[in-house]
Amino acid sequence: MSLRDTAPAGARQGDRRQGTQRDAWHGAAAKGTAFDWPRTLVARGAGDLRAEHLRHRPKQARSGALHCFLLDCSASMRKDGNLARAKGLLLALMQEAYQRRDHVALLCFAGDVVELRLPPRRASAWNDDWIAPIGAGGGTPLALGVERAEQLLVRSEARQRWLWLLTDGRTSESPARPEAADVACVVDFEAARIPLHRAQQLAERWQARYLVADRAD
């Protein structure tokens, strides 16, 4: 016995009436729907509890987590093998998501466009052939990329929504952290002799997890 299937105070014992009220009550319990008691009792007021007073909690998410990857494919990511290292890390992260049975999505941004390379879906086995065609070139439309990621995360029903930004930070744009991201991670691929530390600064403003990608020797 639990609160999910126990009638609240005010419900009549031994009620055998047929119709909408009884069906609504027992139908919800049979489906395992959790009632939101505070909202239900407010809707009831001082009168008897009726079917139209029932309020339900939102249904549980269909997946444990959604990992939205935002990959910088601008021209600066070509230098020092940054994009190749980012692809390798991306494959490793997606493989881990596959083992955890999580969902993944991939957005690539470069020039003046953001491309949805992989809509949100259950992670599956990945290989180099799938990710190899991603090239690099043009500017770094970071703000537009973050905006598209926000739109994607808002529509997700996952219990926890992750945003992974893989970038070298070579841009003057500094967008706000997406409110829909429960967890944000910034992976820094900057390898310039005179670093600008913009990816690190962005992570600090976002209060995000900050990771420095391993550099190739």
Walk me through the structure:
The chain is elongated and about 75 Å long. It folds into two domains: 20-53, no CATH class; 65-212, 3-Layer(aba) Sandwich (Rossmann fold). It has 217 residues and is an alpha/beta fold. A hairpin with a 2-residue loop joins strand 2 and strand 3 (113-122). Strands 3-2-1-4-5-6 form a six-stranded mixed beta sheet, with helices on both faces. The model is unreliable at 1-32 (pLDDT under 50). It has helices spanning 20-30, 37-44, 82-100, 128-131, 142-154, 198-206; strands at residues 65-72, 103-110, 113-122, 160-167, 183-188, 209-212. Helices cover 29% and strands 20% of the residues. It is built from six helices and six strands; from the N terminus they run ααβαββααββαβ.
Describe what is shown at a glance.
The chain is of the alpha/beta class and 217 residues long. The chain is 29% helix and 20% strand.
CATH superfamily of the largest domain: von Willebrand factor, type A domain
Form type: elongated
The structural class is alpha/beta
Counting DSSP H or I runs of 4 or more residues, the number of helices is 6
Give, in spatial order, the strands making up the sheet with the most strands: 3-2-1-4-5-6
- CATH top level assignment of the largest domain: Alpha Beta
Number of domains: 2
Named CATH architecture of the largest domain: 3-Layer(aba) Sandwich
The total of beta strands comes to 6
CATH topology of the largest domain: Rossmann fold
Portion in strands: 15-25%
Quote the distance from N terminus to C terminus. Answer: 62 Å
Helix content range of the residues, please?
Answer: 25-40%
Stretches where pLDDT is under 50 for at least 5 consecutive residues are 1-32
One letter per element, helices H and strands E, the order comes to: HHEHEEHHEEHE
Mean pLDDT: 78
Tell me about the biggest sheet? 6 strands, mixed
Q: Work out the radius of gyration.
A: 24 Å
